[in-house]
From TrEMBL:
Listed PANTHER family: DNA MISMATCH REPAIR PROTEIN MLH, PMS, MUTL, MISMATCH REPAIR PROTEIN, PUTATIVE (AFU_ORTHOLOGUE AFUA_8G05820)-RELATED
Keywords: DNA damage
Name used for this protein in its record: DNA mismatch repair protein S5 domain-containing protein
UniProt-listed Gene3D superfamilies: 3.30.230.10, Histidine kinase-like ATPase, C-terminal domain
Native source species: Bionectria ochroleuca (Gliocladium roseum)
Amino acid sequence: MGIVELPPATARQLGASLDIVDPLALTKELLENSIDAGATHISILISPNAVDRILVRDNGSGISPEDFHALGRRSHTSKLETIDDLQERGIKTLGFRGQALASANSIAAITITTRTRGDAVASQLRLKHGVGGVEGMNLTSAPAGTTVRAECLFETMPIRKRYAVKESQKTLSKINELLRAYALARPDIKVSFKVLKDSKNGWDYAPSRTATLQDAAMQIFGRELLNQCNYVEMKPDSPNAGDELNVGGGIVLGLQAFLPKLGLDRTKAKAKGRFFSVNSRPIASNRGISLKFISTVKTFLSDISGGHTASGRPSIPFIQINIQCDPGRYDVNLTPLKDEILFAEEEEVVRCFEALCRTVYQQPAQEAHQSEERSRHEVDCSVMLQGVGKHPTPDSSPLGKIY
Ligand SMILES: Nc1ncnc2c1ncn2[C@@H]1O[C@H](COP(=O)(O)OP(=O)(O)OP(=O)(O)O)[C@@H](O)[C@H]1O
Ligand SMILES: [Mg+2]
């Protein structure tokens, strides 16, 4: 057979099923759209087999009627204009490719109900399957925000559909895990997750409007687990650094982490997990810089235990790290799920994390002053330490505070 151009519908379907490989990926994309729309409350409803229906409702900005024609069309986005936005200036939103809704619209039937705060009524839009744009519309009553309903997933892909149904229980628990990761990355967003006709698999996260990472971790995992971790924050000290921290090499960095104490008891840690995020974007824990962080922590734990752990190498049932930095300092366009980050100054970031670990694992409180002096020479950063549940006794320093 000679080389021929694929029919557009076939090309779209091939691309879409790579972008959205399963119901988990679709849920993630819809959730991210809601977060990007500034939602403070997001609810997710899914059918038990994970393919009949996935519905995500938010109280975000809504979509304005002038944009309806662009919905579900490939490469249509409100978040990016040129590649420089991504590569040089850095992108703050979770989405930027303008593909997710188009892909969703090729592997499922999509209905969107939306209303901006300026609209008197909401519009319910049925997207033209595969191509995007609006096939049918009626006015309806709904609060400001957007609800995206995806139905009949993978209807034209029987093998994928059968597999998705077979894996549906696993998918539901992975969605639970995914939502925990987003709650830790965005502690102030309320999330509720329900499985139709199944009260066991749901999950609710109801934070206060000013909830912090510590509040989220406490609510999600409980004090028992957190007592087995050190909570550490690395903050800026330079008067011009704003909320971030200059670690050298030009990158400005802030870090918040729950790091395991030696001997964190797996059995007592009722919730396990490895959670990493960069600028509130959860990233994969089994690739890239996340693996370097895990390896660093293992090395410190191994050093302080003198290799005396049951398996020789300490295990890390729980760890959580949030990084804040200028989004122009990394590339996020690496994987279809946008869940990996390539830092321009990766070595500096890892060195800064090592300095943080040294302070947690190597230095007792009375050495705090020397530790600061050393940190000042090794990396240009300041460290604030706080043991969870303890009353802080601040020790003043020119760089920051050590509790
Ligand atoms: N829940 C929502 N609330 C408001 N606007 C939305 C919502 N979902 C989608 N949109 C609008 O539709 C556009 C297309 O969404 P889509 O997810 O396809 O692309 P994206 O988020 O820009 O990029 P990506 O493909 O990387 O997710 C968005 O840029 C946004 O303007
Ligand atoms: Mg998106």
